[in-house]
Amino acid sequence: MSKTAESVWNNCLAFIEDNITSQAYKTWFEPIKAVKLTDNALSIQVPSKFFYEWLEEHYVKILKVALTKELGQTAKLVYIIKMENTYGNKQPFTEKIPSSNRSNLQSQEVDVPLKNKSPELKNPFVIPGIRNVKIESQLNPNYNFESFLEGESNRLARSAGLAVANKPGGTSFNPLLIFGGVGLGKTHLGHAIGVDIKDKYPEKTVLYISAEKFTQQYIESVKKNNRNDFIHFYQIIDVLIVDDIQLLSGKAGTQDVFFHIFNHLHQNGKQVILTSDKAPVDMIDIEQRLLSRFKWGLSAELNHPDYDTRVAIIKNKLYRDGVEMPEDIVEFLANNIKTNIRELEGAIISLIAHSSFNKKEITIDLARKIVDNYVKHTKREVSIDYIQKVVSDYFQMDVDTLQSKTRKRHIVQARQLAMFFAKKFTKASLASIGSQIGQRDHATVLHACKTVDNLSTTDKQFRKYVEDLNKKLTL
Ligand SMILES: Nc1ncnc2c1ncn2[C@@H]1O[C@H](COP(=O)(O)OP(=O)(O)OP(=O)(O)O)[C@@H](O)[C@H]1O
């Protein structure tokens, strides 16, 4: 029987499968398609350029052995890269690349020029029509390490940030993922790392961007049909800092494009720094392949600052603003605003403003009034027990029923709502929410959150439940 591309490739695959781990086989070989066989040259189609680079880097030897077994010493391997095309009607196009000489497999010329590749790199930060290849780092110099006070709550993240700034791309903290609750300094620390790198390595291209802006730029590039330019632009950055990466949740296109950029940068020893308001394990609607990359480096948490750090932050702020404040007021503020540094700073600013506009001394009474305002407006931490109680009362059942194993629809829905609100209003992980609401696992909670999201958009009655409960829990 004569050989076909498929039969040759299937034999190669059988050999490769026996010689590498099943995970690697699944990831790197299952997506490949054999396309044609001519003159002892087997063409295989791979999903992306990154994929091709990875195969060449890691599996070229085994590919060579497998192919030589099938086609003899003169075997050639040609990669056909399916370029994901921009949105719209154009046909996907391909780029053919011969396997490298490193493999001693014989190579052939690249025969398809990249039609869509423009000769000039497009900078998505630049307004169309204005040519500017200089990349502004978008860093805020006031957010530096000096102004980021160290405490127990941020020691790991701050030290990792310093290590990364000393050797960008050269530590195992790549990516460095900084995560923590609202107003705890994620953005500040992200900038500080970038600012420090710029001081130490002025030649490096550093770019800070919020995930929101990144998404807008990506959408814009799709509209303008220059998605590849967008990708190429980000691939030349040495240090990429992306703030609030959890905002990519549910945005499949942006996640895909970020995946390619991330892989390219990581592969080339470039540094990636990400911030998020949750740990990777608690991110919802982010593709598994991205989540697993987020976990490659170090995930460092910013916790609530302890009392001493809060006092130090207040004093530092007062010192920088040239304001004096009695010690008992500093202590009062530190004792009463504990979970959000932005609010702590806001209270200080209000206090100073009130006292200077009204020409009043800063007194403990004034401080109390202002803190009352702040604390009232602060989202109250609710416990999972409290959420279960509110949800059960609302549906007129007891907490044991809500937690029971029954599949009765109204009970399942109540349980799912409790899980959804526990995710929304507490910092507990999915696993811990599951174990507190009827001994369920992490996947069940994830499913519950998605179901509630879906039902609230499709079912009017259900949306009312969500709104009512939301009100009760935020009173
Ligand atoms: N360790 C610290 N030392 C001094 N100031 C700090 C520290 N941590 C945070 N801040 C200040 O607290 C404010 C809030 O910080 P930042 O904006 O970085 O928080 P965030 O975690 O990114 O918040 P969000 O979740 O809203 O994005 C900033 O003004 C920042 O300078």
Structural features, described:
With 475 residues, the chain is of the alpha/beta class. The chain has four domains: 5-103, DnaA, N-terminal domain (GMP Synthetase, Chain A, domain 3); 152-302, P-loop containing nucleotide triphosphate hydrolases (Rossmann fold), CATH 3.40.50; 307-377, Helicase, Ruva Protein, domain 3; 384-474, Chromosomal Replication Initiator Protein Dnaa, Chain: A. Helix content is 51%, strand content 11%. It has 20 helices and nine strands. Strands 6-7-8-5-9 form a five-stranded parallel sheet, with helices on both faces. Strands 1-2-3-4 form a four-stranded mixed sheet. β7, α9 (252-267) and β8 (271-276) form a beta-alpha-beta unit. α11 (307-321) crosses α13 (341-357). It starts with a helix and ends with a helix. The site of adenosine-5'-triphosphate has 17 residues, from α6 and α13.
